[in-house]
Amino acid sequence: MGSYINKNLIKGETVEYETHLHWKIYFTLSGLFTLFIYPYIRQVTNEFAITNKRVVVKRGLFARYTFEMNLNKIETVNVDQSIWGRIFGFGTITIVGTGGTRELVDSISKPLEFRRKFQEVSS
Asked: Which fold has domain 3-122?
C-alpha cells in the first residue's frame, strides 16, 4: 500500500482497493530515452486508491499533486479503453464529481476493476 495513502487515512477509514500505472508506460519514448528511469519513478510515486470514504489519487516525487474526493460527491467513474487497452488490461478513468469536477487518470492498470470496486464501495 502506498505510503502517502497510509499516512493520510482518517479515523475509521480503510483502503478497499489500490492500483497502479500499467507496465506499458515503460515502452514510451521517454522510457527509452531515460533508460526506463522516468517510468520507474512514475510507477513508484503515483498512488491510486479507493477507501471506504473517498477516492485518492497522488502523483509526483518532488512536486506533489493530490486529488481526494468523498465517495458521496462522485457522480460517476468513466472508463475509456482502446483495443490494445482491452487486450493488455490498461485504460483511462475519468472521475466526475458533483459540480462538474473531473479527474483524468491515464494508463491505469485494470480500469474496469477500479470502476467495479468504486461501485461496490459506494453502494
From this structure: PH-domain like (2.30.29)
